[in-house]
Design goal:
CATH class of the largest domain: Alpha Beta
CATH superfamily of the largest domain: Ribonuclease Z/Hydroxyacylglutathione hydrolase-like
Bound molecules: zinc ion
Structural class: alpha/beta
CATH architecture of the largest domain: 4-Layer Sandwich
Distance between the termini: 5 Å
Length: 445
């Protein structure tokens, strides 16, 4: 018998954590935290697994909404094996350490984080890493019959979908996936169908525009808009996630410069993005040996911003966080850039609608002025479509290819989940589509 429960956010981009029980064995897929919350508020509801076996934690990629509660999960389920790809292991190490500092800064001086640096040092030795396409069993004295395989998810470096096979049953969890290639990463690979249960992300399920955008044209539109700001002597800031967006946007800017679409102005990157660049530089070559020389990203970095340094245009700035969480570099920079019409703040990825980045995209200027503490917002705001997620037609195409008997949609706002559920019911009438609630138990076989 297989049972499923969404332990983390079933709706929206919150803490991802999906539990599957195969008789006496249990697997937790991802151990995320809600990037917009702090402390226990940010955790999945691990209480739901009080009486359940947790034999393994399998992590799909190193974004916080997928790994942010890993230390808490390891403390809670100390006998669980911890599986991920080699790149995810390295990135997780860096990200969790950084996240700890972010939590302390956000929480103020009385805040006690749920784990500390020595604990992070201790748990890194538990990570067992496996490459794409290399099946491996659940490591235990007794043969569980469970087998895992990672598939390249095309989302960020090291990102994986997880195929779980057990007594002839097959479950595939996409993690975050992108079917077509980006500027650095190649597109996702999926296992052969049919699949008994597909657990799919739904980030762009409500975005009708994403599927119409052609990446080369969008890059040219981006170059045109950036050029206009730079010619006026302005600064263009891209609020970006340190992991993934920063490297992809850097590669795109380099691509546009080499073709004469962008002038040679300084490109600044804030601290965490640079640390991640180093990891990308070390590992990209291993993953795509034909396409990347070691040190490819270092060769694309033209300037480094240091805290306290004043920004002068013309320049491009890649600053974390992508959602402009208060206290982050992109939030602080927005306060200095917002009033000047020569400057631009350009959005290039997903943002939760209730975060400052979401408010910018929705042109909620009154709320933003209060939040940023500025008198006026005159800078130019643009939204571009360079997502690291599949658009909804690609998600449907993936589902058609995998021919699942059951599909669970997750990792999306309600309209996104509902669009995909309705469309899948229409196109795959023999598949059962489920939109579970957090904490709801489903029995699958
Ligand atoms: Zn992600
Ligand atoms: Zn995610």
């Amino acid at each position: 018998m297989i049972q499923y429960c969404s332990v983390g956010a079933a709706e929206g981009i919150g803490a991802s954590a999906h539990y599957l029980q195969f008789d006496r064995w249990g697997v937790l897929l991802d151990a995320g935290s809600d990037p917009t919350a702090n402390g226990v508020e940010a955790l999945p509801d691990y209480e739901l697994l009080e009486e359940r076996p947790v034999s393994a934690l399998a992590l799909t990629h190193a974004h916080l909404d997928h790994i942010g509660s890993l230390p808490v999960a390891i403390r809670r389920f100390p006998h669980a094996r911890v599986y991920m790809t080699p790149a995810t292991a390295e990135l997780t190490d860096q990200l969790l350490y950084h996240y700890l500092q972010v939590q302390r800064k956000r929480g103020g001086k009385d805040f006690i984080p749920l784990y500390d640096e020595p604990f992070l040092e201790a748990i890194r030795y538990l990570y067992q890493s496996f490459d794409y396409g290399q099946p491996f069993p659940l490591h235990s004295y007794e043969d569980s019959g469970l087998r895992f395989t990672f598939y390249d998810a095309g989302h960020i470096l090291g990102s994986a979908g997880v195929l779980l096979e057990w007594r002839g049953r097959r479950v595939f969890y996409t993690g975050n996936t992108r079917k077509s290639s980006q500027f650095i990463l190649q597109g996702a690979r999926y296992p052969e169908g049919p699949i008994d249960l597909l657990i799919s992300e739904a980030t762009y399920g409500a975005d009708a525009r994403a599927e119409t955008v052609r990446r080369p044209e969008e890059a040219k539109r981006f170059a045109r808009k950036v050029r206009q700001r730079l010619q006026l002597g302005g600064v263009v800031m891209l609020p970006v996630f340190a992991l993934g967006r920063t490297q992809e946007m850097l590669a795109m800017i380099q691509h546009l410069r080499l073709r004469g679409h962008l002038p040679s102005v300084p490109v600044y990157i804030t601290g965490m993005g640079l640390k991640i660049n180093k990891i990308y530089d070390r590992l990209l070559h291993n993953i795509y040996p034909d396409r990347f020389d070691p040190g490819a990203l270092r060769a694309m970095t033209f300037g480094q911003w240091r805290r306290g340094q004043k920004l002068h245009g013309p320049a491009i700035l890649l600053a974390t966080s992508g959602m402009m969480i208060p206290g982050s570099p992109s939030f602080d920079f927005a306060r200095t850039l917002a009033a000047d019409p020569r400057n631009g703040i350009y959005f290039v990825g997903y943002a939760d609608p209730e975060t400052p980045a979401g408010l910018f995209r929705e042109q909620q200027h009154d709320r933003l002025k209060a939040l940023l503490g500025v008198e006026a917002i005159h800078c130019q705001v643009e939204v571009f479509q360079f997502s690291a997620h599949s658009h909804r037609q690609d998600l449907l195409a993936m589902a058609l290819q995998l021919r699942p008997r059951r599909i669970i949609f997750t990792h999306g706002e309600a309209p996104a989940l509902e669009w995909l559920a309705a469309e899948t019911r229409r196109r795959l009438p023999r598949s059962e589509v489920i939109l579970p609630q957090q904490g709801e138990w489903l029995t699958l076989a």
